[in-house]
Amino acid sequence: MFIVSCKSYIPYQIDVLKPAPVILPPQKQKILLINRSMNTDFSKLQADSLNKLILYTKKKKKYLLLDSIGADSTLRALAHIINEKKYMEATIPDRPNLYKGINAQFILTQLDWPYVKKMCQLYETDLLVAMEVYYTDITTQYATEQLDQAKLYSASMDVAYQTHWRIYDPEKESILTQYMVKDTVSWTYSTPIKKQLQREIPDVRDIICYASYNIAEEYSKQICPEWQVQERIIFNKGSDTIQKSAQLILENKFIEAQEVLLKEVKTISKSDRSKAAYNLALAYELEGQLDSAMIWVQKSHQAQFRNQSIQYLELLKKRKKLIEQFDAASQQ
C-alpha cells in the first residue's frame, strides 16, 4: 500500500463504543423478551375495513387499535435489532405473550419474582425485558373541497403508538429501569381524482409494521451500546520511522508500530519526535491503553506545539470519562 498526501498527516477512522443511556451490567447481556401488553380485546388487524372507513367518514374519526400482529412485530423487531448489534443477546420464548385482565392502556403491577427467575433459568438469560403496554390510536379524516372547476379529494391518517417497558433483574429482584416509547406516524394525500386517492391510501398494516420497527429501534438505543465512528489522524510524512509506523497502523499492526516508535522516538528530530509521539499515542489507543495514549499525546505537544495534539488529548479524556462512568454504573 502506498501513502500519498500533500499534508503531513492522513485521516483515519476508528470505531468507539458509545454506552447506552441505560447501562446494564456487562456480565448481564443475555435478555429474555416477553409481551404483557395484550388482553382479550387484541385481535389481528382487519386493515381493509379500516381503510374503507377513511373514504366514508367525512368527520375526523379516532380509533383505539389493539393489534396482536403489531405487538408481536415490535417484540421480534427488538430481538432482531439487539442481536444485529452483537453486543447483547436477545431471546423470545416459545410463548411470549402473557395476557392481562385489565384495560390495555393500563400498566400492570410488576411480575412475580419466582416467575422471572424461572423464565430466565429456563432460557439461560440474565435479565427479563417486558413490554408492559402496547396500543395505537388511529385518527382518520376525509374531505372534499370545491375548486373553481373541479373537486379536491383529501385524506389523512395519523397512527399514534405508545409502549411501556420494564427490565427485571432476577438476581437482585429489582426493576433496573422503566421506559416509555411513543410517537406518531402520519400520512396525507390530496388529488382531484377520487380513484387516485383510493389507490394511494396506505395499508394500515404497513404503517403498523413501520411503527413497530420505530418502537423497537428507539428502545434498543436506550439499552444497547452503539459503535460510532470517530475521526483520528496519522502522521505519515517525515523520518523513515514515522512513515513505517503510519504504514503499520494502517495494516492494523498496532503493537509493531509501538515497538518501532519506542525504539526510535528519542533519536529523531524534535519535529519528527512530536509526530512519532502522536502516532504512538494512537497505536496505544487502538490497543485500548488510554492512559498510555494520553501520556504520549502530551509528549507530542511538549516536543512541538500542535493543535492536533490538544484536540486529541481532549478526545481521549472524554473517552476515558465515558468508560469510567460505564464501569461505575455497571457495579451498582
Write a structural description.
The protein is an alpha/beta fold. The protein has helices at residues 47-56, 68-85, 113-122, 194-200, 204-223, 240-250, 254-264, 270-286, 290-303, 307-330; strands at residues 9-18, 30-35, 61-65, 89-91, 127-146, 151-169, 174-191, 226-235. A hairpin with a 4-residue loop joins strand 6 and strand 7 (174-191). It has ten helices and eight strands. The chain starts with 8 loop residues before the first strand and ends with a helix. Strands 2, 3, 4, 5, 6 and 7 form a six-stranded mixed β-sheet that branches. The chain has two domains: 9-17 and 227-330, Alpha Horseshoe (Serine Threonine Protein Phosphatase 5, Tetratricopeptide repeat); 30-226, 2-Layer Sandwich (Double Stranded RNA Binding Domain), CATH 3.30.160. It is 43% helix and 27% strand. The chain is flat and about 80 Å long.
Provide tags for this entry.
two-stranded antiparallel sheet, 6-stranded mixed sheet, 2 domains, Serine Threonine Protein Phosphatase 5, Tetratricopeptide repeat, Double Stranded RNA Binding Domain, single chain, 43% helix, 27% strand, 10 helices, alpha/beta, 332 residues
Structure summary:
This protein has helices at 47-56, 68-85, 113-122, 194-200, 204-223, 240-250, 254-264, 270-286, 290-303, 307-330; strands at residues 9-18, 30-35, 61-65, 89-91, 127-146, 151-169, 174-191, 226-235. It is an alpha/beta fold.
